[in-house]
Amino acid sequence: MYRAIDSFPRWRSYFYFITLIFFLAWLVKNVFIAVIIETFAEIRVQFQQMWGSRSSTTSTATTQMFHEDAAGGWQLVAVDVNKPQGRAPACLQKMMRSSVFHMFILSMVTVDVIVAASNYYKGENFRRQYDEFYLAEVAFTVLFDLEALLKIWCLGFTGYISSSLHKFELLLVIGTTLHVYPDLYHSQFTYFQVLRVVRLIKISPALEDFVYKIFGPGKKLGSLVVFTASLLIVMSAISLQMFCFVEELDRFTTFPRAFMSMFQILTQEGWVDVMDQTLNAVGHMWAPVVAIYFILYHLFATLILLSLFVAVILDNLELDEDLKKLKQLKQSEANADTKEKLPLRLRIFEKFPNRPQMVKISKLPSDFTVPKIRESFMKQFIDRQQQDTCCLLRSLPSASSSSCDHSKRSTIEDNKYIDQKLRKSVFSIRARNLLEKETAVTKILRACTRQRMLSGSFEGQPAKERSILSVQHHIRQERRSLRHGSNSQRISRGKSLETLTQDHSNTVRYRNAQREDSEIKMIQEKKEQAEMKRKVQEEELRENHPYFDKPLFIVGREHRFRNFCRVVVRARFNASKTDPVTGAVKNTKYHQLYDLLGLVTYLDWVMIIVTICSCISMMFESPFRRVMHAPTLQIAEYVFVIFMSIELNLKIMADGLFFTPTAVIRDFGGVMDIFIYLVSLIFLCWMPQNVPAESGAQLLMVLRCLRPLRIFKLVPQMRKVVRELFSGFKEIFLVSILLLTLMLVFASFGVQLFAGKLAKCNDPNIIKREDCNGIFRINVSVSKNLNLKLRPGEKKPGFWVPRVWANPRNFNFDNVGNAMLALFEVLSLKGWVEVRDVIIHRVGPIHGIYIHVFVFLGCMIGLTLFVGVVIANFNENKGTALLTVDQRRWEDLKSRLKIAQPLHLPPRPDNDGFRAKMYDITQHPFFKRTIALLVLAQSVLLSVKWDVEDPVTVPLATMSVVFTFIFVLEVTMKIIAMSPAGFWQSRRNRYDLLVTSLGVVWVVLHFALLNAYTYMMGACVIVFRFFSICGKHVTLKMLLLTVVVSMYKSFFIIVGMFLLLLCYAFAGVVLFGTVKYGENINRHANFSSAGKAITVLFRIVTGEDWNKIMHDCMVQPPFCTPDEFTYWATDCGNYAGALMYFCSFYVIIAYIMLNLLVAIIVENFSLFYSTEEDQLLSYNDLRHFQIIWNMVDDKREGVIPTFRVKFLLRLLRGRLEVDLDKDKLLFKHMCYEMERLHNGGDVTFHDVLSMLSYRSVDIRKSLQLEELLAREQLEYTIEEEVAKQTIRMWLKKCLKRIRAKQQQSCSIIHSLRESQQQELSRFLNPPSIETTQPSEDMNANSQDNNTQPETSSQQQLLSPTLSDRGGSRQDSADAGKPQRKFGQWRLPSAPKPISHSVSSVNLRFGGRTTMKSVVCKMNPMTDTASCGSEVKKWWTRQLTVESDESGDDLLDI
User: Fold this and answer.
1) In angstroms, rounded to a whole number, what is the distance separating the alpha carbons of residues 631 and 624?
2) H or E element at residue 799
3) Which of 31-45, 376-390, 468-482, 729-743 has the least mean pLDDT?
4) Cα-to-chain-centroid distance, residue 1173
5) pLDDT at 43
6) Are 316 and 221 in contact (CB under 8 A)?
7) Closest to 1266 in 3D by CA, of 523, 508, 324
8) Is 662:655 a contact under the CB 8 Å cutoff?
9) Helix or strand holding residue 1379 (H, E)
């Protein structure tokens, strides 16, 4: 990059290399880790028995054996293997088992480790084998030998070696005993001495459990280590056979050297040097083959092998499926805020006596003394009086209604707590009633369903594969049938034994699930009770202590100024636009912008802008342009302090400082705000003119650099990032302890082996120390690859330097501190090759094993352990670490459905015209594959450099122009086929149109200008065109979506990393802004300004020679020029500051922040990476739903009316199909769920898709506990409402039938009454009765008939006579049956002509009388008894006949 900066514009180099590192090193490379982790997890799920079941961290000192009890039975009895089996006295055995003895031994191990760590190099003339450290080692060895002999005496040798821990202790005893022998002291047996520190793991149970999790199941990790070692041996042997004959190449001459070279490639440190040297040695002919060989090995080793270690560690940290739900319950209980006490800062008021605020009653007779009473007590009566007055004023005009409503609102607000309690009590009663109703309705529905299934109503239908919706619906019905054991017992009488056993197991599982539900409900109740108790305590403190909830004990609780401050502090943009009628959230066009504006309050937005402006001002500061001497920079400092003063004053007046419920200082964020403000205020007031190095003023300037961290407090998502960093601090701390223990072991061993042995004279011709004096001439090389041809007698350029006997510049092992610093640098895989070469050259080749073992353990296990723990903590914070396989798939499905969108593909044109043919061509797979091949062919043109002076460039550009015209033709065909509006709907089409437009512009500029810039533009267009191919293949699209979604979700983590980097950059300018140039501090990489410091820190993030930059910043006199008055006048560094600065930055950024990116990529990759067997809803299901949605949503608005949901569900086929013959009830449930979602309003694409996803999974297995309870409650409510609707519709149908029967009966009875009236009138009064004429004379006779006073020409009724019943039937049959229309009966409009035996009587509707009154009026002298009996018999006979004839008609209603 630095060479590109010198050769090209600076911005181009920075942009290219930074984006290259970000996308390839941080995103794409981590995708390989995600692939390996997901693949390994899937293998674990499918072949869980491969390595056996997991075991818990139980003590190896206990076992279980069968023993016969007194009753003759057998039982498991725990047997302690530490039970005394030796011949030692009882007192020694009791002492050996005591905790005091155990702690004494561990304390002695601690002292031994401290003594070993205190060893250092004392010089060549000191006799090391008889110093105090040797005597201490002999004493500790004798002590631990006696411990081992005591345990063997007490436990017996067989009982002693039965424990793995005792075997390890015995190995240490034998090794350390041999080590204290003088001839073997400070030899390879030193390993046994330093390994005693491993015994300290027993001190902490948490550390012991963590180590057991990682290394306990050693079969997987051990197998992977063996596989890695075997791979190294095999590849070393192959490389040895391939390159051992190559001259001028000494890296593969022997097997050890080949092994070291291949191991170096595995660690990625200097692997390019190995490949370059081999390429130069083999020549140009075999160079491509050799390069491919090394690159493939490097990719396999770094991308796959290291990812396997991460996958194994994550798998070891994974819990069993059986334990996850239990852990979920415990986690829910821990997350529930069940603390019944208030914070300590509020409970401090309980230490003071109660002093409730009292008031004095006035306007009373003064004959007696009125005591003061509590103000809160009086407020109750005042509020009640206002409420009564309001109720009395309800009947008054509307002019007084507003005041009444205002007082009512105030009363409700004051008594909100009591109201909530009453509502909760009413809700609990309603919930019980609702549960009883649900049980009854479900019982009826279940019995009907079972009866229908047992009756064989489904038999005879063609066999068809049931959809997942139908399967899950029946699973729910079967599971809910387990609620009532009586019905299940009745139905299951005819079942087989296996079916009964299965039903019993299902019942047991249901009872367990019911117990989990009750525990969740109990946790929720505890949370509510704890919240209620805290509120009660807060109200009591508010009532009894007048200074409670008063900011600074001055401003009143309801003071106007405090209310004003609250309004200012809490004012924010309302991002959610809701419908006032339905309450649904409206989808606005700029909802993303609205969500961003509503992210924080207006005051926080102002402070974010002010903080950003202040950070920009600090970017212009440098050691040569300081804020103390630049008035323009001081303006920004004053503005920041003034605005932050106003902000803190408003927040303190609104919420209080410390002793209030919502105080400013209630968490770490508030403390950081106050700290940053005080530092800025002190610095602004002090403004020191002279700042000495390593002084308090310089420390104040360093603390001032923490100002960008204010954004962490102001933005909620940034606070979430901080919580994710610190929530897993325990596991990260345990990993750090393990790595420090590993470093301490190897550092102590390195001190004893290499202390003082790495020093050498800077003159390579001097070997002994006593000869290293005087001066010598050193040659200067311009470049290591530049061979200057010298004339005879001419010397290379150089200069004279003094001879010095010294250690290597960057590391040594003279004491434990320097050794641990060197090993920490080696742990980051930077500089370890130099350490290895120095040790091999100055101590011996055999000691190269030391550094290789440490690198392997630190790199393969230590660093991957860090990655695994950070990923595991991230998953735990996200709530995915404790999810079962089904629950994880459900969470992935929900996230995948959120990303899914309706298809932006317009429908095919209806006709078979030109547009339809174009549509078929553009949508054909062959056409798409052809376009993809053309894109690849155009990309191949960039394999040759496009140079203006090169004649090959013109043909290449011409071919690119041809490809561009082909792509223009493609876009034109799609626009014709889809129409411009339909083409614009797809984002992919928009991108293709943009790239094609750029290609057309390039073609015009190319033929017009034909220079280097047009060639560069053409290359850029080809690169942009290449990215369009990612959306044309499923796998490439999956990987692209993984990267894009990871970038989106990691936005705040990247911003947080940049803010942290900005703080370190500002501090680096203050600490190392004037450090002299060294090996890596140069004109490109330095801290002279904040911009250059950012580039240096970004380089350190990548790990490139960060340790060498640190050592350059550690330079001290006499190698630099100090200054006592100002830090900007010296060119020295800061040793302690550089050590803390660079080590802390590298650990936080490289080990934690970057691993968070890996965790996000792993999480997002699981969304898109899943096989068809794993997916709850496959891609084909989603694609089918998108196609059906496009058919229903013809306007492409993304929403449809609720009534169209039924049409959409009927169109679904395949796994989402709903069979109305079998699953009509499920169809009703789904439709009602959509209706009640937005109160009958329009539903969106994601609403319907979410409903289908819930209906397609087994919610008992896939949903978490809280979500499961909410979903089951929703489905129970839907079932009850659908059952009510079904019963209501059935009742309406029954009532309609009854009313139809009644209406028909009434019409028949009415006709009979009219007919009987005519017959009686003719029989009793013959002169008044006329026989009807034939049909053609009927109208005339009806007009001339004036003797009947109750005639009517509006309606004519037909009735049979007493003597001709058959004729009546025949006529009625000829006239047709009565017809029904909208619930009424209609007689035939054109009856046949009637015979003479049929009479017609015209009656007025309003003048009906009863049959008895008519008879009496017509013939009062007739015998009423005989007449009545005859009429009664005839009436009964006629009614029976008519009811028999009309029965079939009534049944058809």
Assistant:
1) 14
2) strand 798-802
3) 376-390
4) 23
5) 64
6) yes
7) 523
8) yes
9) strand 1379-1381
